[in-house]
Amino acid sequence: MPSEQVIELLQRAYTAEIETVMNYQTNAIVLDGVSAEEIKNSLREDVQEELGHADQLGQRLKQLGARPPGSAAFTARQESLQPPEDSTDVLAVIEGVLEAENEAIETYRDLINAAEAEDDPVTEDLAVTILSDEEAHRTEFQGFRKEYRNV
């Protein structure tokens, strides 16, 4: 039987992935300007990967006899990833993505530790795989931030 901590972390990760999908999609729509195109394209690509993560997390919850939370159990947390008032403020979106990725990385590290402590190698492996994806996203957006700060 999985621990409550593992279930709670899987549910937290699931809702964070769903919220990230919403915010990435919205920012990909609202950003304007020539310099925004690369960021918009990256966000659109990441939406599909984040949806895949949510699906994997939801499936794991089901395998463990739990369920992914629905919208009524959802509390939005990604304040910094909200679309900027100035639709050309690409750097604000980049900073929001980085904050969201850092939070995701922390959650997946916590999940890895909890799953390891519970001798749950399947959940641990899933968390390691998704952690790798999130670290790759962070690296990509760190590069974008460096470039935009130099403009």
Q: Name the helix and strand elements from N-terminus to C-terminus, one letter apiece.
A: HHHH
Instruction: Calculate the terminal CA-CA distance, rounded to whole Å.
Output: 53 Å
Top-tier CATH class: Mainly Alpha
Number of helices: 4
Which fold name corresponds to the CATH topology? Ferritin
Count of the separate structural domains: 1
Specify the CATH architecture. Answer: Up-down Bundle
* Helix percentage range: over 70%
Which structural class best describes the helix and strand composition? mainly alpha
Average residue pLDDT: 95
Spans of at least 5 consecutive residues whose pLDDT stays below 50 are none
Radius of gyration: 16 Å
β-strand number:
0
| Silhouette | elongated
Beta fraction: under 5%
- What's the CATH H-level superfamily name? Ferritin, core subunit, four-helix bundle
**Main sheet overview:** none
Ordered list of secondary-structure elements with their pairings:
Elements: H1 4-30, H2 37-63, H3 90-117, H4 121-149
Helix pairs in contact: 1-2, 1-3, 2-4, 3-4
Structure explained in plain terms:
This protein is mainly α and 151 residues long. It has a single domain, classed as Ferritin, core subunit, four-helix bundle (Ferritin, Up-down Bundle), CATH 1.20.1260. Helix content is 74%, strand content 0%. It contains 4 helices and no strands. It is elongated and about 50 Å long.
Key features of this structure:
single chain, 151 residues, mainly alpha, Ferritin, 4 helices, 74% helix
